[in-house]
């Protein structure tokens, strides 16, 4: 299946989830105007990247937190991939990418190999994911990897 995808290289502000959410919504609106059926955002796009100790404070349960409601709503018209800090039911905190489509979470990928060197000390702040899986979408079959 052929479709148009938009790559949204937004300027994420570390720790400012509300501002980043608005950037997401603006980029999605622009992508829809340009005929895209999928928008892909960067790693940790909703929270910003170099979070360090903020990771715990910004972790979101994607199935319970109302913060994601605007993204769920727009995903009824366009498929989305975005990054965030996930607070999982197993009590882990993950650098995760979510795939939303038709108003629902269709897939979550948790970064498997968080770096542990130099300024990239993710291994100190994030749990490690443990699987890579393909999943079906109305646009076709996908897989997501983070860095």
Lay out the secondary structure.
Blueprint: E1 5-7, H1 17-33, E2 38-40, H2 54-58, H3 69-74, E3 79-87, E4 93-101, E5 104-110, H4 122-125, E6 135-137, E7 140-142
Parallel strand pairs: 1-2, 2-3
Antiparallel strand pairs: 3-4, 4-5, 6-7
In a nutshell, what does this entry contain?
By secondary structure, the chain is α/β, with parallel strands linked by helices. Helices cover 22% and strands 25% of the residues.
Structure report:
This protein is of the alpha/beta class and 147 residues long. Helix content is 22%, strand content 25%. It has helices spanning 17-33, 54-58, 69-74, 122-125, and strands at 5-7, 38-40, 79-87, 93-101, 104-110, 135-137, 140-142. The strands form 2 sheets. The chain has a 5-stranded mixed beta sheet with strand order 1-2-3-4-5. A two-stranded antiparallel ribbon has the order 6-7. It is globular. The relative contact order is 0.16.
């Amino acid at each position: 299946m052929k479709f148009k995808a938009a790559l949204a290289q937004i300027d994420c502000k570390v720790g400012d989830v509300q501002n980043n959410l608005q950037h997401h919504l603006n980029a999605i609106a622009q992508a829809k105007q340009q005929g895209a059926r999928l928008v892909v955002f960067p790693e940790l796009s909703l929270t910003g990247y170099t979070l360090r100790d903020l990771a715990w404070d910004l972790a979101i349960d994607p199935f319970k937190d109302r913060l994601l409601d605007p993204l769920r709503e727009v995903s009824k018209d366009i498929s989305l991939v975005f990054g965030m800090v996930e607070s999982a039911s197993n009590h882990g905190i993950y650098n995760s990418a979510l795939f939303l489509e038709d108003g629902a979470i269709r897939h979550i990928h948790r970064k498997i190999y968080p770096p542990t060197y130099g300024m990239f000390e993710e291994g100190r702040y994030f749990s490690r994911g443990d699987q890579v899986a393909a999943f079906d979408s109305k646009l076709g079959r996908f897989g997501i990897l983070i860095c």
